[in-house]
Design brief:
The structure holds two protein chains of two kinds. Chain A has ten helices and two strands; from the N terminus they run H-H-H-E-E-H-H-H-H-H-H-H. Chain A is mostly helical. In chain A, helix 1 packs across helix 3, helix 2 packs across helix 3 and helix 6 packs antiparallel against helix 7. Chain B folds into two domains: 75 residues, Orthogonal Bundle (Arc Repressor Mutant, subunit A), CATH 1.10.10.10; 142 residues, Four Helix Bundle (Hemerythrin (Met), subunit A), CATH 1.20.120. Classes of the chains: A mainly alpha, B mainly alpha.
Chain lengths: 241, 237
């Protein structure tokens, strides 16, 4: 069974479904290592981030084990297809599209720099105090503490609230809910460690400083940098297991 | 009872609640005319659009009647003061119409630009169909909102980014709630509707030509135009 070329522009889900089908058909057997990410991307004529999203989706669903830099292995006990009827094979509906982490970051990069600029313009003194508290919590939190996600959420929510626009708050919460989806969390786990967390804290501090000095332009730039960096982290090389 | 200044920068709800307290205290009696929007805005030191949102909220809740250019009149107090609890979604207060338009103006021009690059022939057909239905729909037909939704949602889909699609859904929810609808009704007529159709056509033309820059501008113009319509003077009855 040859690997088919994916026609449409994007979609990790199609790639994941195709790989799952190959596994079901016995093209890749349990314990076997999948071709490298770069190879898969070339063969499927898609970008590497899309392949990575697909692989993470397959990991979440139990089709493969990702052993960091060592490679991606077909799970010894692949899920019984029937049990997963609701994930692979089901096209995301128009109303509930399955959002990939990279497109989520792209969407956030469109919205959040403006949110940060507005926050810098409108933040009250109390808001600045609230930000300081969240920054403090972040700095005191180690990368292994699961609360780091919560503080990150608090920071970005506080920014949205500081714009004074409830519609933007709703948009942010909608985007954030996707960030808590298994696919995103799994991807983040692969690319999370102490040094990345320290870097993320620095990026948040830059945003905070810009908001504090009521500098919309710097706030916009700092947020854009933060999201670009997050994107870079997720498309970097796998860590050694 | 003097009108207090609102410290918190925004929120039509606070202003609406303050006016309700004045009504309850008998400061303004049934049948009486409230001060003009502009005066209220000055005394409360808030913007006129925010006062307008507050007045519309009071109208929805049955406290006042807005008679276009003639003024805003106090009604007999609702039987059981329908303190319509501010509707919320997941604990987030429902945004006022002007907040929604502001947020949409941040996001939708980019959506339109992406759609110009990524739209599929099928999505283009759906956009044309939505516009066709709009053209055939009269201003008084409630289905126009459905067609409007179809147009904007198809655009979001055509952006190729499903996170943006969900963001669009989050922005559409408050657009179909009473305060927004009531404000819209006050400033809706055949001429406004024809104008809106032209604005949508400009967006579609830019998408068809794959011109991201023109699409972004057309969407931005559309959002600004809606905002201008909602901020215009009350029409005479």
């Amino acid at each position: 069974m040859p690997i088919e070329i994916i026609e449409t522009r994007r979609l990790y889900r199609q790639i994941a479904d195709q790989i799952a089908n190959l596994i079901t058909a016995g093209e890749y057997t349990p314990g076997m290592r999948l071709p490298a990410e770069r190879m898969l991307a070339e063969q499927l004529k898609v970008s590497r981030p899309s392949v990575r999203e697909a692989l993470i989706a397959l990991e979440v669903e139990g089709w493969v084990d990702i052993r960091g830099g060592t490679g991606i292995f077909v799970s010894e006990t692949p899920p019984i297809a029937a049990l997963h009827a609701s994930s692979p094979g089901v096209a995301p509906s128009k109303d509930f599209p399955a959002v990939g982490p990279i497109e989520l970051l792209d969407a956030r990069d469109m919205v959040e720099p403006e949110v940060a600029a507005l926050a810098a313009r409108h933040a009250s003194d109390e808001t600045i105090v609230a930000f300081s508290r969240i920054m403090g919590d972040m700095v005191c939190c180690s990368s292994t503490d699961p609360r780091h996600m919560e503080y990150d959420h608090q920071f970005h929510s506080a920014l949205a609230a500081a714009t004074g626009n409830a519609a933007l708050v709703q948009v942010m919460e909608t985007l954030w809910a996707m960030r808590l989806a298994p696919l995103y969390v799994q991807l983040q786990n692969h690319f999370h460690n102490e040094s990345i967390w320290q870097q993320a804290i620095l990026e948040h501090r830059e945003i905070f400083e810009a908001v504090k000095s009521r500098d919309p332009k710097s706030a916009r730039t700092a947020m854009h940098r933060h999201i670009q960096n997050a994107r870079k982290r997720y498309v970097s090389n796998w860590q050694e297991a | 009872m003097p009108i207090e200044s609102i410290d918190n920068r925004r929120l039509y709800r606070q202003i609406a609640d303050q006016i309700i307290r004045l009504l309850e205290a008998g400061e303004y009696k049934p049948g009486e005319r409230l001060p003009a929007e502009r005066l209220l805005a000055e005394r409360l030191t808030v913007s006129r659009p925010t006062v307008r949102e507050a007045l519309i909220a009071l109208e929805v809740e049955g406290w006042v009647e807005i008679r276009g250019g003639s003024g805003v009149f106090v009604l007999n107090r609702p039987e059981a003061p329908t303190f319509a609890p501010t509707p919320t979604t997941n604990g987030i207060p429902t945004p006022g119409p002007f907040e929604v338009l502001f947020a949409r103006d941040l996001i939708e021009p980019d959506i339109a630009a992406l759609a110009a690059k990524h739209v599929t022939p099928e999505q283009l057909a759906n956009l044309s169909q939505a516009l066709g239905l709009m053209v055939c729909c009269s201003a008084g037909d409630i289905k126009r909102i459905e067609y409007d939704r179809e147009f904007h949602f198809t655009l979001a889909e055509a952006s190729g980014n499903s996170a943006l699609q969900l963001a669009m859904q989050a922005l559409w929810t408050p657009r179909v709630q009473p305060v927004y609808r009531c404000l819209e009704d006050h400033f809706h007529n055949e001429q406004v509707w024809q104008r809106a159709i032209i604005e949508h056509r400009e967006i579609l033309e830019a998408i068809k030509q794959g011109d991201a820059k023109a699409a972004r501008q057309a969407m931005h113009r559309h959002m600004k135009a809606v905002r201008t319509r909602f901020s215009s003077n009350w029409s005479k009855d």
